[in-house]
Every structure is written in structure tokens, then in C-alpha cells.
Amino acid sequence: MKVNFLIIGSAKSATTSLSNGLALHPDICFSLPKEPQFFSKTDWRHQISEYHALFTSKAKLYGEGSTNYTKFPSFNKQIYADIFEYNPKMKLIYIMRHPIDRIVSHYTHTYNRGYEPLKDINKAITLNEHYINTSKYATQIEPYIEQFGRAQILLLFFEDFVNRPQEVLDTVYTFLEVDQLDIDISKINKNKSFNRRVLHYTYDNPKTIWKKFKKVGLIIKNYFNRDFIDSQPQLTEATKQHIVNGVTDDIHRIEKLTNKDLSKWLKL
């Protein structure tokens, strides 16, 4: 088998909902978990059989949705060439969101998972380039276009998917060359930005009975955790301007790639 398509990002832009929708199609087998981050590792060539084992049923197409594939330069810097080596016919789906909204959601998730130590969102965004880098959509996608060609890449927008989910899914089905399928949208919107059940990353794969028991206790504890961010943190005007300054050039390049007016993304 070969994995045929990837949802490569961007993080916190409804990639989980999109993955859930595609997983309902009878011709598509989606990986478990949704984000194996396989090609983020430089030693992936030695683990292909384990990767393929994540796809548990036979299907016309196999896909996964690892958003770390568009977080350059944080992970495998040769990821474009590596994915091309694995499957030069790979189709790539990239969904983009208003950069400020995406960064707020990204920060919140990262803090709640334990990767971000700073409780002050404005300080975190100013000090950690990762948040803005991930919102530099042209910087992230252009190397894929150069490697695979424009025809193998589908560019989507979060706002379109939120407002017209079936229409966007139909666009993806056409891109992947599978039959159209009407989806019960209520079944795919399972991922929430402020989810009190998100656990610290160290409890992702408990190895002992004690750690498994402790994980259950932490799920309960999270409902009463005052340090957990469960409402949208507020950005200062200075931080918003810092974000806009960092992504302006990329937004203009995306406008040219998609022939879409994104000027509202540059307004505070």
C-alpha cells in the first residue's frame, strides 16, 4: 500500500473536522491516530511497516492529517523531499485560517498540553517565533508546490469550511477523485479549541497500570484545574500588530496563489 493523501495543516484550522469528514467516506481509510507525524521524523524509512499498520482497513485511498508537516523549521527540514521520495504522486491538502485567530487557538492548545510554559499569551507570542512561523502560510506551502507541482496541492480556507462545510468536502472529494458523499456535519465537529479534557503530553501513552489509572484521575481533575485556559485569551494591540507585520508578505503571496482577497486578515 501507499498513503495517497495528507492533510498537512495548518494547525488549529479545522483539520480534525476535515479529517473526520473524509474518514466517513467508504473509499477512504484514515490513520489511527489522525496525526502520526510520521514524516516529521528523519528516520521514517526504517518504520514504514509500522506507519502502514495505522491504516486498519482496505480502501481505495489512505490518508492522514499531521499538522507538524507545515511547521517549518521546527521539524524535519527535508520533509518535502522525504514525502516525495515516499510517494511522488501524493496529494496534499492545506487549510488556512485568519492568522491571529489561528495563533490564539494554537497557543491555548499548546499551553494546555504542557508544551508552552508562559501563561501570558502576549509574551509567549513575542518570544516564540513558532506561532508566527506556522501562520506564514506561503512559506510553509511554497516548497511543497515546488516539489510536487500545483496540481497535487489543494488550498482551502477555514472560514469557507465553517460556513459551507459540505461544499468544501465536495471540493476535496473531487480533488481526491472519489464520489461525492453527503455528510452529517454534526458528526465531524468534535474538536474544540478550549477543551478541558486535554491532558499534559506526558500522559499521551501511559505504559503502566498506575499511569493509566493516574490519567483517568487527571481527566477528572482537569474539570477543576484553575490553571487550565478554557476561554479565549486576549491579545494586546501591539501583539496583533506584531503578528500582522510577521505575516503580511506571506498573505500577499497566498492571495496570488489562490486569487482570493485576504485583506481582512491584515486589519486589526
The portion of residues assigned to helices is 40-55%
Question: What structural category characterises the helix and strand content?
Answer: alpha/beta
Rounded radius of gyration (Å): 19 Å
Uncertain spans: none
End-to-end C-alpha gap: 47 Å
Strand order of the largest sheet: 2-3-1-4-5
SSE sequence, one letter per element: EHEHEHEHHHHEHHHH
What is the average of the pLDDT values?
Answer: 90
Number of helical segments?
11
State the major sheet.
5 strands, parallel
Strand content is 5-15%
Number of strands: 5
| Global morphology | globular
Kindly describe this structure.
This protein is α/β, with parallel strands linked by helices and 268 residues long. The chain has eleven helices and five strands; from the N terminus they run βαβαβαβααααβαααα. Strands 2-3-1-4-5 form a five-stranded parallel β-sheet, with helices on both faces. The relative contact order is 0.16.
Kindly summarize this structure in a few lines.
By secondary structure, this protein is of the alpha/beta class. Helices cover 43% and strands 9% of the residues.
